[in-house]
Specification:
By secondary structure, this protein is mainly α. The protein contains four helices and no strands.
Amino acid sequence: MENKYGGMTVNERLYVSGLWEKFDDAVAQKDIDLVIAILKKVELNDSNIQEILKFNGFAG
């Protein structure tokens, strides 16, 4: 499986994929399921997703 986002930051992945605003809205609405779905669409692994969730106040 080719990682089309290889070498990009999370912000770059969200911007290039066109999901930046959707991600930002999901975070603002505290919609954890949508946040996770978006992060998986930009090919982040579970470990990275957990760190992003913590950073955005979803986990302690």
